[in-house]
Write a structure and sequence with these properties.
The structure is a homodimer.
Chain A lengths: L1 E5 L2 E4 L1 H4 L8 E3 L1 E5 H9 L4 E4 L7 H11 L3 H13 L4 E4 L2 E4 L13 E7 L3 E3 H14 L2 E7 L5 E8 L10 H6 L3 E6 L2 E4 L2 H11 L3 E2 L5 E3 L1 H9 L3 E3 L18 H11 L3 H13 L3 E4 L7 E4 L9 E5 L5 E3 H13 L3 E10 L2 E11 L3
Amino acid sequence: MQGELSDEKVMVAEPEADILGKGYGRKKGKLELSLEEAAFLFETGKIEIKEKEEKKLNLGDFLKHASQISPKFAVRYIVYRDLKERGYAVQPGRVDFWLYPRGAKPGEKPAKYFIRILSERDFLPLKALDALLVLARNMRKEPILAVVDEESDITYYELKEAKFESAEQMKEEEERKEGKAKATLLSDRVLLWDADLAENLHRNNFYGKLTKEKRLLLSLVESAYLMKRDMLEIAKNAEPLKPQTSNLKPLNFEQFIDYVNSIESDFMDKYGVYEDLRGKGLTVKTGFKFGSHFRVYTARQQKHSSYLIHVLPEEHVFSIPELSRAVRLAHGVKKRMIFAFRQKAGEERVIRYIDVGRMKL
Amino acid sequence: MQGELSDEKVMVAEPEADILGKGYGRKKGKLELSLEEAAFLFETGKIEIKEKEEKKLNLGDFLKHASQISPKFAVRYIVYRDLKERGYAVQPGRVDFWLYPRGAKPGEKPAKYFIRILSERDFLPLKALDALLVLARNMRKEPILAVVDEESDITYYELKEAKFESAEQMKEEEERKEGKAKATLLSDRVLLWDADLAENLHRNNFYGKLTKEKRLLLSLVESAYLMKRDMLEIAKNAEPLKPQTSNLKPLNFEQFIDYVNSIESDFMDKYGVYEDLRGKGLTVKTGFKFGSHFRVYTARQQKHSSYLIHVLPEEHVFSIPELSRAVRLAHGVKKRMIFAFRQKAGEERVIRYIDVGRMKL
C-alpha cells in the first residue's frame, strides 16, 4: 500500500486504506495518517511512503524527515510504538494521544485516557500540569504523562487531584482546654517548657519533638499554628526582634510571622498548606528526610505516613528529572507524592493538591 | 558549681572544674566551657550559671541568651546533646565539633571525626563540601555532616572521596574491530541501523536501547562518546544543522557537540563525566528514573547498578533538602549517591567525585 507524505501527514487513498482497519488515521476523502501512525505502519511493513511525485522513501529517510518536520516526532513515535506493542488502541489527539481501554477499539468505546508526551529535557510549568487536570475533568478522561528519557525508556505517570483518605478528627476542643503554653524562641525553633502541656501536645497531636526532660521543641510552622489558635505564647526577645521594645509582652502572631519570614522565604505558602492540612484533621510532620516539606499521616496510630507533600509557588516550572526524583522517592517509601500550591481564585486563594504517581500500563 | 557567662564562653574556676572530668572545656587559667558544654552541664544539673556580677540565670534565659549570642547555638546544642546521650566524647573544635571513637576520651586517643553542623535552612556550596574533604585528608579525620531539621531531628552524613570498585575492563579492542556504524540523528536521540553492530554494542557494552527490529536507539552522550572513538558516523541533515551544506558528509565530533549544546545546556560537563567513567571500565546508563544523570554498574553481569551519579557545576550551591532528597533516594535503592564535578586544577580540569551517604552513629 502506498502513502504520500504531505507536510505533517501521510495520505493513503481510501479504497486501499480500509484493510488497515479502524485503528488508524482519520478519513478526509483520503485516509490521513499522523507521522507516528505512518512510521509504525511503515516499520511493520504495511505501507510504503513516497514524497509527492517523487521516489519512494526508505525508512531512515522517512524518520529523519518526520523528525525535521516535527521536533517532537521521535519521542511521540517511541511512545506510540510502545503503546501499540502493549496492545492498546491509540489515536493522535488534542493532548498528544488518546488511549483506549485495553481491548477496546476506537469508535466502540470512548477513550479512557489522554496522554501528554514529554522528553526528559522538557520543562513543565506547574500551571500546565494543573491545566491538564482541568481539561481531564471537563473531558471526563484520566490524564497520563509519558516521559521518554534520553535512553528512550518510557515512564508513565498518572495525575490526580489529591484526595486525602478520611482522617480522624483531632480532638481540637481537648487541645484548647490545656491553656496557653509559654515558650522561648531559639533562633529557628521554639522551646516549650511546661512538661504536662509538652507531653500532651506531643502524644495527642504529634507536635514537636519531646526531650528527655519533657520539654517540647517545636518547628516554626507548628509554633505559628499554635500561636494562631491561641495556644502558645512566645516571649519577646530584646534582640534580634525589636531592640527598642524591652518590655516583655509576648509576640503577637504578625510579629512572629515577620520574624520567620526574615529567616525563611516562602514561609507563608508553606504555613498556608500546613494549616489547611491540619484543618482537614491530618497529622502533619516535616518531610525533610524525604526532601519534601511535609509527611502526612491520616490516622493517629499510623506507623508510616501516607503522603509526602511539597509546597511550590504557583509559578513553579518543573524540570522533568526533578519530577522523576520526587515521585520515585515517594514510590520507594510507599507514599503518594503530592504537590501543593496556593492558587489565586479571584480575590481568594485556594490550596490545590496534585497527586503524581508512577503508573503501570 | 558556678559558671560565669562571658561573651561566647562560660568560665568555671579551676579547682572546682576538676570534678567535671576531662571531657569538658579547655583550661586557660579558668576552665573555659563552650555554650553547648555549659548548656549541657546546666541542663543535667552539674553547674549553675550567672551573668557577670549579676543574678543567676535560669535555664530558659541562658538558652535564649546563648542563641542570641550565637545564632547557630540551638542546632549546635541539639547535636552536642545527641552525641553525649549516645555516649560519645565530643569537643567543640575547628569544624564545629571533634568526635572521638566510642569509649575513648579526649587526650587518650585522637578524635576520629570532625562534624560540620547544618540547619535544614542552610545552604552548602559544593566547594565547601569539597573543602571539608581536603581538610579531612590533611588532618587525617573523617568528615561528618550533621543536619538538624526543623523538627530538631538529626541526620548524619558521611563524606568520602568516591572510590569505584575495580571494574572489569570493557573489551575496547573488540569493540573497535566492528567498524563504524551508520546512524541517523532524530532530534535528541540517534538511531543506529546495522543490526549486527547494534546488537554487539548493546549486548557487550550496554549502549543504547535495542528495538525489536535490532536497531539501536542511542542517547546523545553515548553517541558523542562513540563518535569520539571513531565508531559512529552520523549523516548530516539538511536542517536544522546547516541548511547551506546539502552534501552528505557525516558530522564531525565538534559539529555534533555544537548541535547538542544547543538543545542541552551543560552537556559538556555531563559528557566529561561520562567519558571519565567509561574510561574507568564502568558501565554507565542514564539515572533518569532516579532523578540523577547516571547510574553506574561495576561489572557486566550486575543486575542492579551500584552508584547514582549527579553532575554539578563547580559553583553549585546545595539546599539542604536537595542533598537530603538525593541521598535518601540512593539509599532507598541500595546505591551510593555520588556528586561529580569538573574542577579547575591550574590549566587542567580534573573530575572529582564526592560520595555522600547516610550514617548510623
